[in-house]
Amino acid sequence: MKTHDTTRRSPDARETPSKAEIRTDLLVIGAGAGGLSAAYGGSQMGADVTLLEGHVMGGDCLNFGCVPSKALIAAGKHAHAMRTGASYGVTPVAPEISYADAKRHVHHAIATIAPVDSQERFEKLGVRVIREFGRFVDKDTVETDTYRITARRIVIATGSAPLVPPIPGIEDVSYLTNETLFDLMERPEHLLIIGGGPIGMEMAQAHIRLGSKVTVIESGRALAQDDPELTEIVVARLRAEGVEIVEHAKAERISGRDDAITVHTGQGDRTGTHLLLAVGRRPNIDTLNLDAAGIEHDRSIKVDDGLRTTNRRVFAVGDVAGRLQFTHVAGYHGATVLRPILFGLRAKARTDHLPWVTFTDPELAQAGMTEAQAREKHGGKLEVLRFPYRENDRAVADGETGGLIKVMVVRGRPVGASIVGARAGELIGLWSLVLANRLKIGAVAAMVAPYPTLGEISKRAAGQYYVPRLFESAAVKKTVRLVQKWLP
């Protein structure tokens, strides 16, 4: 460990106990995806790194978000398969579900992954890990209960917390958020979910498959951040499985007791045994004392294209930076800021290639622009390539033909891709690669995908670009006929 501690008296020793002083190259506040990425990269490339985390290592994703939700979704998928085997020659049966055991699977997944994000691992990598909360006292100094840390550069990666909306009556009932849902060991008889975004819809399908009754209440359109043509397929599937989805219904008031909670909306009242709030996130900045460091903020921290705050020594990454709130985006941010921090070089956090996935069944994935966004920006220059899952041989063999890919292309270069269907989250990675490297559509069309795989869907979609240019072109056909006459 190259950092060294010295102890000196506080400037006002009569009122403030002496604190151990640390001077470091890089101070990272928050041990979620963005913070761990910055701490790991900085340490491995020779910087003197200190990491502050007052809560849990691994942040929201490992402990309350991505990992536990996908583990619960997997449990629900197994239960659903037992009910739906008839078309495959398998007699459907009603599964015997232990909700508590499903949650034990969730906790096992968390515990298995936790060592990768652990304090012990990062200390072995040379990072000083301090398990305390910190607050700024000036432009380059952060204090905890026992330390005063001065750093050349600071990365704020404190993430976000569930937003609790100010609905009248909400303070009078018990409610769940993603931070408490996965500790619930008794299956909800009827789960009310306020919020029809990715978290709300994923948990709705997982719980209906695990035997709960589920109602989703959404003030606008469900999954509103995605292409409406594609989200309609997801919403229809959830409704077919028994989820009640009430759109354009604002939660106006909440009443009742803990085992009979009523959400009052303009479209009628809905009563259930449990209430899950899934209406968004709020950045964790309230206790950082940002003003002392000259860092401007409102709901989130103000940053430039390089994720630098109004204090040139300080960067903000992930949810606190007010950009897309996804774990992989936070990790990308954490890696991006290392360029100026370690080498003094310029860096820009792009958004045009970033993907996201809603892990419903079917999955819903997006990279770059949606069709609506592309039409607004590019107008008549836009071409939309489409290919349905039902024309893919692997999808037919697997009985998963309900899906579609759309690729937005401008002058031969993709600007976005939207996919709904089986393993859409795996397929979208190719299009993120294309967008990140600004490749032309021909790069995907030239790809050889193994047969039979869903990967052929992307290749076939790319091939649609050439159908009118080659196979439907009278000039091309005329040229071929002429060449054929002259060939020996």
TrEMBL record:
Q: What are the leading ranks of the lineage?
A: Bacteria, Pseudomonadati, Pseudomonadota, Alphaproteobacteria, Rhodobacterales
What's noted on cofactor binding? Binds 1 FAD per subunit.
Gene3D superfamilies associated with the record: 3.30.390.30, FAD/NAD(P)-binding domain
The broad enzyme category this protein falls into is oxidoreductase
Record-stated family: Belongs to the class-I pyridine nucleotide-disulfide oxidoreductase family.
Q: Name one GO molecular function term.
A: flavin adenine dinucleotide binding
Keyword Flavoprotein on entry: yes
Question: What residues does the FAD/NAD(P)-binding domain cover?
Answer: 25-334
Q: Which domain of life is it from?
A: Bacteria
Protein name per Swiss-Prot or TrEMBL: Mercuric reductase
Quote any Pfam family the record assigns.
Answer: Pyr_redox_dim
Question: For binding NAD(+), which residues are annotated in this chain's numbering?
Answer: 195-202, 218, 280
Q: Which PROSITE patterns match?
A: PYRIDINE_REDOX_1 (PS00076)
Instruction: Name the positions where FAD binds.
Output: 70, 134, 158-160, 319
**Database matches in InterPro entries:** FAD/NAD-bd_sf (IPR036188), FAD/NAD-binding_dom (IPR023753), FAD/NAD-linked_Rdtase_dimer_sf (IPR016156), Pyr_nuc-diS_OxRdtase (IPR001100), Pyr_nucl-diS_OxRdtase_dimer (IPR004099), Pyr_OxRdtase_I_AS (IPR012999)
> In this protein, which residues make up the domain named Pyridine nucleotide-disulphide oxidoreductase dimerisation?
355-461
Q: What is the E.C. number?
A: 1.16.1.1
Disulphide-bridged cysteine pairs: 61-66
Q: Where is this region: Disordered?
A: 1-21
| Alphabetic keyword roster | Disulfide bond, FAD, Flavoprotein, NAD, NADP, Nucleotide-binding, Oxidoreductase, Redox-active center
What parts of the sequence cross the membrane?
A: none
Q: Which cofactor does it need?
A: FAD
